[in-house]
Specification:
Length: 165
């Protein structure tokens, strides 16, 4: 095997061609490529800063949401506490009203019992008076039917009248 060595002319022309291509690239292509790379780098930096800004905004929104949730929880607890207190107040008020109503009903019942008791006692007294009058009437009829008893009763009446006069 043999190594091929290029000739001096070939090396010369390759060098000249390379320098021309390098010159043309430097003159026409290098600046636009560098500008495009610079623009791309700038747009990437802008996108990264926008992403960082969005991340910070999201964190702020998350903090605001957590704050709002905490406030909502406090408000909910406050409402529940107020509702519980209102319920307790209603129950307590109803209990007091029931106790007052019960006491009033008991007082009315006692008063009705007392009235019935008085009425019964009055009725018993009236019955006793009627019974006493009936007995007295029967005794008087029996006493007055006897002429000797009538004369004794008249003398007794006369003596009472003369003593009192």
């Amino acid at each position: 095997m043999e190594l091929v060595t290029p000739g001096i002319g070939l090396i010369f022309w390759q060098t000249v061609t390379f320098l021309i291509v390098l010159f043309l690239l430097g003159k026409f292509a290098w600046k636009p490529i560098m500008n495009a790379l610079s623009e791309r780098e700038t747009s990437i930096e802008n996108a990264l800063s926008a992403a960082e800004k969005a991340k910070l905004e999201m964190q702020a929104l998350k903090a605001d949401n957590e704050k709002l949730l905490a406030e909502a929880r406090l408000e909910r607890d406050k409402i529940l506490k107020e509702a519980s207190e209102a319920g307790n107040h209603i129950v307590e008020t109803a209990k007091l009203k029931a106790e007052e109503e019960g006491a009033r009903m008991i007082a009315n019942a006692r008063e009705a019992i007392e009235n019935e008791k008085r009425a019964a006692i009055t009725e018993v007294k009236n019955m006793a008076a009627v019974l006493s009058l009936n007995i007295a009437e029967r005794i008087l009829k029996r006493e007055l039917s006897d002429p000797n008893a009538q004369q004794a009763l008249a003398q007794e009446y006369i003596s009472e009248v003369t003593l009192n006069a």
